[in-house]
UniProtKB/TrEMBL annotation:
Residue ranges occupied by any 4Fe-4S Mo/W bis-MGD-type domain in the UniProt entry: 8-64
Enzyme category, top tier: oxidoreductase
Species in which this protein is naturally found: Selenihalanaerobacter shriftii
Keyword Signal listed: yes
Listed SMART domains: Molybdop_Fe4S4 (SM00926)
Name listed for the protein in its UniProt record: Nitrate reductase
GO CC annotations on file: extracellular region; membrane; nitrate reductase complex
Amino acid sequence: ANASNEVDKWTKAPCRFCGTGCGVLVGVKDDKVVTVKGDKKNPVNKGFLCVKGYSLGKLMNATENRLTKPQIRRNGRLVETDWETALNLIAKKYRKYIDNYGPDSVSIYSSGQSTVQEGYVLSKLMKGAIGTNNLECNARLCMASAVGGYLTTFGKDEPMGCYDDIENADLFFIIGANMAECHPILYARVVRRVRNSDVKVIMADPRETRTHKISDLDLFMKPGSDVALLNAISYVIIDEGLIDEDFINKHTHLKQNGKEINLDEFKSFLKDYTPKKAAKITGLDPKDIRKAARMFADPKRESLSLWTMGVNQQVQGVFINNAIHNLHLLTGKICRPGSSPLSLTGQPSACGTAREVGTFTHKLPAHRIVANKKHREEMAKHWGIDVDKIPSKPSYHTMAMFEAINRGDIKALWVTTTNPAQSLPNFNKYRKGLEDVFLVVSDVYPTETTKYADVILPSAMWVEKEGVFGNTERRTQHFEKAVDAPGDAKPDLWQFLEVARKLGYGDLFPYKDHPEREIFEEYRECTLGTGKDLAPYDAYRQKRGLMWPVVDGNETARRYVAPDDPYVKEGIEFYGKPDGKAIIYARENKGPAESPDEKYPFVLSTGRVVEHWHTATMTMQVPELKKAVSETYVEIHEDDARRLNIRSGDIVKLISRRGELELKAKIGGRGVPQPGMLFVPFFDRKRLINLVTIDAVDPSSKEPEYKICAVKMRKA
Ligand code: SF4
């Protein structure tokens, strides 16, 4: 039913899927979601939704395959049980391992799809109560390199820009992002801006995508040559006198290999990246590189950089982020309407739950870090615990955590709202660990990961519970519980609190009447005065989200602003750094971990299609989305296809040093990789491309290189 008069009540919510955070209105009748529509009052999407957002109503009614009863493994088989039995088993196992092997023998792997409240409770449970930093978040797989970029360049995480920059930008530099499919509503805002004015778009990507439809300048660079391209653009900006020297002097340092350098030294570093030299690395026409630099640095234009996984999921992810920031710092095009480096996120609360609350191993709530004594002291005081309880060293990043599981160092793992058996790269290497570890999985549908579980906990989904998500532009958005979860499914928050109490930590988790509110208020208190201040809970219940920092319940700044900063009028501050100055880094282009060679001559890249979200555990439940793209495929350039006598629809085998996979060939269509490159969407659980991908990680962000590995291909 879709007619408004068949609805008992409407409730607002951020979309369940991507990090854009579009607002929806959920229509409910007789405890059922009967319709979902775009929320015109929400400033993010102004009423528009993409195909996934429109499918939310159908998703909420796709209960046929839902997990509705707890299950435990008995004699090798999963059997249904009751909550008490399942939770007692988890508590018993966790307690046994903690007592026998120490707190570091247990772990939780959480998600950018968890609510802020869920993330905060996990952080408190693991770091404050159990006393281990074995808490990681799947956001490690998607935007850890963006975090690393912001931290190294500016001294603090999260973009200073916001979505309103789109309507103020005159030049879009879109690098490593297929926005038309992965961030369609933001792409629509870009398209509207481009159509209505003399606005230009530069696209840098090794693969032609739907996003290129609005491009004025295409830079189809070789995979893994991003730093070379960006350095070459920096070279031209300096060479042609397009820099803002006053800005550079006042607001930046320049550094190479940890040492201060001056602008001349930076320029001489860049001599290895003249457009001509960079052309050899990138495969681009030097004239196009010059053109891109002139377009970006044009003083009459506000320039907005947008990027996502194409940048972050490389072993040079952090360096590429730094090199993007360089363009803005060299030209002073930053922290003013329309000019900003704005990284895009993939999950609805990757920013809110992973970055702000601290479900990464190295973090604590409100962007604090475990390695900082003052931060540990502040959180220990806030939680009423001994400061020594919080370990000062970060524990395992995601891939290292699964290696520790392989080794048997971690004996228990609780996976919540994520699906590592499908999403971890080089999964063949990690399967055994998942088979052996005591594995708890909280989710809404059966997944690749639940196959390995010893305990499955059926979770409430989206508006079957109450919570808060934080989106890409630092907007915190609240949603009410609108309907009951099917069967015995329960919110993850309830599951965490029950286990915390059964483990004997009840005093630390005394929430009673309204846990979502009480937990949020407890979290909010530790944001106050940090520059990431949040508003009281009720403000979010009323409003269509608030971007932090919030003061007196209102958004005081749409981008970070420090009151004592001389550039305050322009909204510039980088106060994370001791002297308030950002850093322009001289970064070398080192290329990928694994390059193609004679034996494995193709570069394989993975990514998404608009119809499916991540591992498609939810979108495959919506018949229309499943029908639209029912199985994955490999995109091949027509020259390669001709040479290998492959036609669209043929079954081909991809083989890497780690695994192999058969899937259908696709030549032409929504994406066209360059010759020598292949592209595979990763949503299909029956055809796991992550058996083939590589698990090399960026040395500082520890984000895996999903975008580049070497494979060979033959007709199956
Ligand atoms: Fe949901 Fe993202 Fe689509 Fe917006 S763009 S409707 S947040 S999936």
